[in-house]
Design a protein that fits this description.
Layout (H helix, E strand, L loop, with lengths): L3 E7 L2 E6 L4 E4 L14 H24 L2 E15 L13 E14 L2 H11 L3 H8 L11
Antiparallel strand pairs: 1-2, 2-3, 4-5
Length: 143
């Protein structure tokens, strides 16, 4: 099981830590009242997706012995009105969150390898989790 803890420190700044000992920070930009001491929550989400996609591509190529020389990924998050989204058939009305990717893969790869890596890029575990949705179980206590 993966565990991340967050502790609000000052304003909107949050110290984050994993049970394995990694530490980092999150915050909001100054224009919304934060102190910009770390990425905002959506930037962290996109970072998790970029890391997972990169790692998954690298693992797959290594396992196959393919000449993957580099991966560069850009993810953008925005909210769009459903009627403005051509590929949003599952939603009836209102706004949806949309993540758009740009994955650039470098290496001496044939067409079949390129096609397979394009499929793999859209199939990392974090991508699948976001695509399927998440069942959240919320527990709140007061001291």
């Amino acid at each position: 099981m993966t565990t991340v803890t967050g502790t609000l420190t000052d304003g909107f700044a949050v110290d984050l830590a994993t049970s394995s000992g990694h530490q980092w920070a999150a915050d909001e930009p100054t224009e919304v009242g934060g102190t910009d001491t770390g990425p905002n929550p959506y930037e962290l989400l996109l970072g998790a997706l970029a890391a997972c996609t990169s790692i998954t591509l690298s693992m797959y190529a290594q396992r196959k012995g393919w000449d993957l020389q580099g991966v560069e990924i850009s993810y953008e998050h925005d909210r769009v009105h459903v009627k403005d989204c051509e590929d949003c058939q599952d939603h009836q009305r209102g706004f949806i969150d949309r993540i758009v990717s740009q994955v650039t893969i470098t290496g001496d790869l044939d067409e079949q390898q390129r096609e397979r890596l394009a499929e793999v890029a859209a199939g990392c575990p974090v991508h699948k989790t976001l695509e399927k949705g998440v069942h959240l179980v919320d527990n709140v206590t007061f001291n």
